[in-house]
Amino acid sequence: MTDTQATRRDTIRAVVFQGPGRIQLCARPRPSLASAADVLIAVEACGICGTDLHILENPPGHPATPGVVLGHEMVGHVAEAGPEARGVTVGDRVVVAPNISCGSCAPCKQGAPSACLSSSTVGIFRDGGLADLVSVPARACHRVAEALPARVAALTEPLSCVLNGIRRVRPMPGEVAVIHGAGAIGLLFLAVLGAGGVRCVVAEPVALRREAARLMGAAATVDPATADVRATVSALQPGGADLAVDAVGSQFGAAVAEVRPGGGVLLFGMNSQARSVIAQNDITRREITVHGAYVGEATFPAAVRQLESGLLRLDPVISHYLPLERAQDAIDTLRSGGAVKAVLDVAGSAVIAEDSGERPLGRPGVSGFKQKGALR
Ligand SMILES: [Zn+2]
Ligand SMILES: [Zn+2]
Q: CB within 5 A of ion ligand 2: which residues?
């Protein structure tokens, strides 16, 4: 469907969260602008992320509003703009930063909008991008070049989160990093760190994902169930890695053990159940720095520029590019471990893309996906 067709429709297709564990592809009335400062986006593509899987667990592993349209990793064109919409105009191609902070609570005023006390999230608490049209605040939109493939542009949101983590640890070319987890997030860390001249060891139990890491230039890939990650790191750099990234959410202890004295640990993966036993003195005596990082609105512009640059090799990340109608298939395949990252083609070219072999790692049925919280 072209933007024009989507814009003219009286009804739209939408993937709606129906309550614990259930989604449904529904026909809905064409949405109107939610506020005068909103724009209506004709969605081209929208990614499915680990948070969506958590929302669809039963009981849910992440809250969401029943009846809401899912999808928070979207790219599309502005089809309509409210009278108070600033910064973008009709026809602009944009990606959307989905976490809408209020700007007036204490954390917002302290420069920590990711902890906003009255935030809303597009695709979780208000309607999102797994639909032909969606109303979002104009201030959440970031213009993106027409030349960037829609499925790659849909990676802007997870990449912005990854950049928010990386800017805290300030890696240097020539350094060695170990990354735990090669889901979409772990692979985006690999892409960015690798492009910056950092040599990366990737620890991941699922073969499909280790293969993606290998294709993306990992210095070494390791199955932590059968091989010694620390020994692999030490073979690259005696004394340990300069940086350890936990993109799983439960690898704090391993990360501390794998970095050199003075090294850094970045805790990024989310697993609210994980309780790590840490030898605290190991952090003190070896002067290790521990960082936490979650989401970052301020890194959206850099994420857009980085994707537009073409510097990152990201095809192995997107294992599945499927039509909107196959949302349930995409979720099932992600959950069974047969996918790395699934992006849904909302605007309608997915069938063509699928038939032309745009799925370098699309092998539904491979088992795995045992890690929780490795994506967001
Ligand atoms: Zn706030
Ligand atoms: Zn996400």
A: 49, 51, 376
- Beta-bridge partner residues of 245: 179, 266
- pLDDT tens digits, residue range 150-166? 999 999 999 999 999 99
Instruction: Say if residue 1's pLDDT is above 90.
Output: no
Instruction: Please tell me the distance between residue 140's alpha carbon and the centre of ligand 1 in angstroms.
Output: 14
Helices (H), 74-143: 106-109
Q: Which ligand is nearest the CA of 71, by number?
A: 2
How far is the C-alpha of 148 from the C-alpha of 41, rounded, in Å? 17
pLDDT digits (tens, 9 = 90+) for 113-156: 999 999 999 999 999 999 999 999 999 999 999 999 999 999 99
Residues lining ion ligand 1 (Cβ < 5 A) are: 101-102, 105, 108, 116
End-to-end alpha-carbon separation of the chain, Å? 28
Strand 120-121 vs strand 38-48: parallel, antiparallel, or unpaired? unpaired
Q: What does the mean pLDDT of the chain come to? A: 90
Dihedral sign computed on CA atoms, order 19, 25, 26, 32? positive
**Eight-state DSSP code of residue 25:** E
Distance 372 CA to ligand 2 centre (A): 13
| Helices 300-309 + 156-169 axis angle, to 10 | 110
* Rounded Cα distance, 170 and 167, in Å: 5
Q: What is the pLDDT of residue 140?
A: 97
Ligand nearest to the CA of 104: 1
pLDDT of residue 273: 84
Q: What is the pTM of this model?
A: 0.90
The encoded tokens of residue 211 equal 């293969």
Helices (H), the chain: 3-8, 50-55, 106-109, 150-153, 156-169, 184-195, 207-215, 229-236, 252-258, 280-285, 300-309, 327-336, 350-355
257 near 246, Cβ under 8 Å? no
> What is the spatial distance between Cα 29 and Cα 12, in angstroms, rounded to a whole number?
6
Cα–ligand 1 centroid distance for 297 (angstroms)? 13
